[in-house]
Amino acid sequence: MRRAAAILSGVLLLAALGAGALRATRSDSRLKGAYRRPPQSGWTLVHLEGTPSDIGFQNGYLFAPEIEDLQKVFALELAHDTKKDWTFYRAAAKDVLWPHVEAEYREELQGIADGLSARGVTLDLWDVVAMNADLEWPYYVAAYDKRHKSTTSAVPGDHCSAFVATGAYTKDHRVVIAHNNWTGYLDGARWTMAFDVAPARGHRFVMDGLPGLIHSADDFGLNAAGIVITETTITAFEGFDPAGVPEFVRARKALQYSASIDDVARIFKEGNNGGYANDWLIADTRKNEIASLELGLKHVTLDRKTDGYFVGSNFPIDPKLAAEETTFDVNDMSLSANARHRRWEQLMAENRGSIDVQKAQAFLADHADTFTGTTEPSERTLCGHIDRSPRGSGAWMPPYGIAGAVQNKATDAAMTERMSFTAAAGHACGIDFSAAAHLQQHPEFAWEQPLLRDLKSMPWTTIRVQ
Fold first, then answer.
1. How many Cβ atoms from other residues are within 10 Å of residue 100's Cβ?
2. Percentage of residues in the chain having pLDDT higher than 70
3. Fewest C-beta atoms under 10 Å: which of 104, 262, 289, 302?
4. What span, in angstroms and rounded, lies between the C-alpha atoms of 56 and 101?
């Protein structure tokens, strides 16, 4: 009865707040213009606008319960994977990262903490900064442990499959770009937020993301200047400069302030700290130009095209970067990054002249394994199912968590003009993940049980701004 009453109360509250969107009811002026829509095929869109402090406050206030939950997830994952507790990351956020965060984003991060406080959540500024740097911490910890001459357990994981194409490769000869996010299912099941941000300065932008973060984190976003940005990580990368600018700051700044490929490259390179090292795939939809920015710490390369494609699956491109900044074996075709790279090349050749958003969606659901020659979901397929791979055969096997592709995005030049993209929560192939069933078969992952959720595959939907 209590549960039924609570559900009825929630329904009445949503009705009272309006049919179109969940809007803030407090009189705080910082919430003016902000709103949160009800979920759409698993995705929750929030609109944020105003000064950095306002945008942060709105993020913290509208997503307070989700941020509180996500902090527990990050703390659990990091403690397991790096053997360091949350107090370590709070201290590093304050002493290592904060001095290199510029004023605009300091104000936004503080605003998130203030929004949380207004909802009665006890997380503070250092919790918020530590959460925003979640993907950078394994790089920092590996360097920290090396500096302190201790054995490290921090190994950055492989993230994502992506492509960008234009010219003779696409159906309308304009840009098509797509990306799926590979991560642990612990945080991946929660990675279903879409942000529509209209800042006081810079360009309005739309991105997928996690609650309480100022950046996309898996990095799929587009802005009102026609720039689209995504990425895939560089496998087995080593290197971190604690005097550099946090990656999460540069990623957010590039999306907010770039009007060209040159802008994106410049912002990413300024103060590069090596954290969350990526091959950035960039599209200027107004000039119909695409680029690949492979951003190591020592080696950085920018390649551009007006006719062709770039693909990403965590493989290092530049031989010098591969040799000097990674421990990755570029010749081992059994490795996920190499097998998926080969599959991307096949798909680009087979679909030359016909690639559009619908085909991009199909690519992200692909289960072809170029190493075995079979069609079966695993860590070697573009639609990643590391949870279905033989133990020890790929990334994120024990001691790391249950992982794979957790959500998908695709857009083209015409959709970018309308500030929209298509998205599918869960695996694009339609396969669901059952937490209880997997834990019963794999008791080695019992440490995830308190926070692990089912990962349901949802239909593709279009994220639109008002």
1. 15
2. 92
3. 262
4. 15
Q: Distance of CA 197 to CAs 59, 164, 329, 387, Å?
A: 10, 24, 40, 34
Q: Token pair 């770009």 is at which residue?
A: 177
Quote the CA–CA distance of 326 and 334 in Å, as a whole number: 17
1 DSSP 8-state letter: -
337 pLDDT more than 90: yes
Q: Rounded to whole angstroms, how far apart are CA atoms 50 and 99?
A: 24
CA atoms within 13 A of residue 443's CA, in its CB half-sphere = 0
Residue 349: is its pLDDT beyond 50?
yes
- Tens of pLDDT, residue by residue over 192-245, are 999 999 999 999 999 999 999 999 999 999 999 999 999 999 999 999 999 999
Q: What is the pLDDT of residue 159?
A: 79
Q: Please state whether the predicted TM-score (pTM) of the whole model is above 0.85.
A: yes
Question: Does the structure show a pLDDT above 80 at 157?
Answer: no
Closest CA to 178 of 466, 465, 464, 460: 460
User: In this predicted model, what pLDDT tens digit does every residue of 277-289 receive, in sequence order?
Assistant: 999 999 999 999 9
Report long-range pairs for 428-434 (Cβ below 8 Å, ≥24 apart).
Answer: 428/180, 428/361, 428/364, 428/365, 428/383, 428/457, 428/460, 429/365, 429/367, 429/377, 429/383, 429/457, 430/365, 430/457, 431/377, 431/385, 431/457, 432/456, 432/457, 433/185, 433/387, 433/402, 433/404
Tally the residues of the chain: 466
Phi (first) and psi of residue 102, to 5 degrees: -70, 165
Which residue would you say has higher pLDDT here, 26 or 181?
181
Question: What CA–CA distance (Å, rounded) separates 85 from 149?
Answer: 19
Strand bridging mode 176-184 / 193-199: unpaired
- What single string gives the DSSP state of each residue in 195-256? EEEEESSS--EEEEE-TT-SS-SS--EEETTSEEEEEEEPTTB----TTSB-HHHHHHHHHH
Neighbours of 236 (CB within 10 A): 20
190: CB partners within 8 A, 6+ apart: 66, 69, 70, 73, 210, 211, 453
Q: Give the Cα separation of 163 and 176 in Å (integer).
A: 8
Is 399:80 a contact under the CB 8 Å cutoff?
A: yes
Q: Distance between CA atoms of 74 and 84, rounded to whole angstroms? A: 12
Confidence of residue 156 (pLDDT cuts 50, 70, 90): confident
Closest CA to 308 of 357, 352, 361, 271: 352
Tell me the pairing of strands 35-36 and 44-50. antiparallel
pLDDT of residue 26: 57
pLDDT for 391 equals 52
- CA end-to-end distance (rounded Å), the chain: 38
The string of DSSP letters for 381-425 reads SSS-BGGGSPTTSSTT-TTS--EEEEEEEEEEHHHHHTT-EEEEE
